[in-house]
Amino acid sequence: MVDDTGIAARRELLVHLRELLKAVRLMKNDLAVHHPDAPPGTLAVLALIEAMEHEPAGRCHIKDLAAHSSLDPSTVSRAVAAVVRAGLVARTADPHDGRASVLGLTPDGRRVLGGVTAWTDERLADALKDWNTEDIVVFTALLRRFSADLMSRHHQPLEAAR
Description:
This protein has seven helices and two strands. The chain is mainly alpha-helical and about 160 residues long.
């Protein structure tokens, strides 16, 4: 027997996922207006470089960025080239492998990322002003779970996912 309720719920979810993606696109468009010093499409790269600087290895290579972001290395390479040109990221020789470059945020990169993070937090605070903290925590946990479950099935045949 087909679970019509489950099908309807998933279709409703898909509708709202499209709305969420639309909201994110609109926010990204606003971000470009308010922070023109951040090259379009590079904020995730800046945030990942900063996060990877705090990992035990303390180093960030393009291949690591590609793996962490699930993007093609050529896509990441273009984004890195844009932030390097903008003076937000510096490349230095890897002391452990002279053939590789280590990426790190410049002071301008930290300033830009800090400004964007503050602006984004203000936007989220405004959008969530009628939510209580518990609702935000529950939503965050469910969103994290949904993302993890969806990513765990990447490249998995549909039959194996059932």
